[in-house]
Amino acid sequence: GVKLLLNGLCSNTTVKSLDLKGNNLxxxxxxxxxxxxRQNQSIRSLILEWNSLGVWEEGFSFFCQGLAANSFLQRLDxxxxxxxxxxxxxxxxxxxxxxxxxxxxxxxxxxxxxGGRALLNCLHSNxxxxxxxxxxxxxxxxxxxxxxxxxxHNQDRQTILSETHxxxxxLSNEVLSLRNxxxxxxxxxxxxxxxxxxxxxxxxxMSTARVSQLQxxxxxxxxxxxxxxxxxxxxxxxxALSEQKVHNLGELxxxxxxxxxxxxxxxxxxxxxxxxxxxxxxxxxxxxxSAVSEKNLLLRNQVxxxxxxxxxQQDQLFQVKQDLTNxxxxxxxxxxxxxxxxxxxxxxxxxxxxxxESLRLKEVDRMTQHVExxxxxxxxxxxxxxxxxxxxxxxxxxxxxxxxxxxGQAEEELIKVRNQTRLEEQQRLEHLQEKLRLMTExxxxxxxxxxxxxxxxxxxxxxxxxxxxxADGLRRQIEELQQDLNIKEQEKVTEVNKVKVELQEQxxxxxxxxxxxxxxxxxxxxxxxxxxxxxSNHREALLDKEGEISVxxxxxxxxxxxxxxxxxxxxQRASFLQNAIMAYVQGSPLAPLSARK
Length: 597
Hints:
One of its GO terms (cellular component) is centrosome. This protein is an all-alpha fold.
């Protein structure tokens, strides 16, 4: 039944603990247990108390082979199984190859001195066993103490290894977190830089669009001013033509007046001559006077026509003045509207520039704060890693000191053991010398009593032979003890060398971790340099954009100055034209006639 059960458990993956206490397992059961230990990968605890497995040597050796091949079992209970020193040797050979068993209970068996030595020897190569129970096995106390020391060494080694593994995991996690955070910070920084570049490009596009709009508005204003200038030139040309016509009419009027005055003088002279000549010429003079009066009427009619024409010219001039005032008013209105539009555009542009500047300052402040926070976090982490490194170095120094103290204790124990063995050897030698002295005395007594006690000679010889055999046995025991001492010394030397090698490996691992930390520091410094370079490039780009904005503002100021200068020139020209027209109208000879009419 046990064989069928164990064969079924070979492929099981859920059972963690198996208790077969007191089931009288035999050879088949032991072989099935060996097969189970070879194939099963889930059982962690196996209890085989009261099964007498040690009686069946072949089955127990097969069980030990399965235990050597297993790498998952952690607890094994073999109490009261009648395991002798040969079974303990098989078990020790299995423990040398096993790397997972942590607890082994061998109480109340028949292991003895040789089995205890075999188990002690296997502990030098097995580094995972933490607990070994050997009570009730007739194992000497010194072997039990050595087993306890080896188990303590294994526990210390396991604790040191677990601590180093945990620290390496913590450091690796910290390094990974630092790498991830640095990658995230770098990506965030690149995103912010890209966003700032996009914002700068968008603002530059907006500024160029606004500048182009302003340029178009200025071009429109220039075209309007050019059209106004053309209209003004046309009005000036028309005004000049009208002035020329008025001047011609004035000349005609002056010529007519001169002719009229000359005719009147001539008529007066003729009248005086006619008066002087006599009355006979009065008819002739009266006819001539009537002719002159007709001519005078004609001349008056011509003067009336000329006055009408002058009035028409004055009306045209007045219309031209009204057109000129209307055009000047329109020019002023358009100039005011252009100024208002320009002021609105300027305010909008200034507001956008102020908004862009505030956004840029906020973004720069946020970036600087973010960079400072990241630098502080990195410095704190570096300090924490440095503190951890210092703590590891202190722990390493403590471990070295503990190793040195353990080495000193081991040497002191070795010296004590040597002294004890020497004292024991001296006591045994003294005992043997005493026995030899007694033997010599008895031999002397036997020789003296040889004649009297022939019958006792055989008995004395037998006793002498027994004593010699006992002495030989004692000598062999002394040689075995000396060999054990030599073996213990070699084992101590090998253990110390192994501890040295393990400490050197730990030191190498720590140095490798230190080099990895230095590489991380170098990477952090490189990232900081990249951040500085990116910030300097960003600042240079901002300075370039600010220079371009200042150049555009300077151009706007120059354009505004040109517009104001053109406005002043146009106002001066309009005032000059108005003054000239008013002066011409007031100074012309038609002004009093028109005023009288």
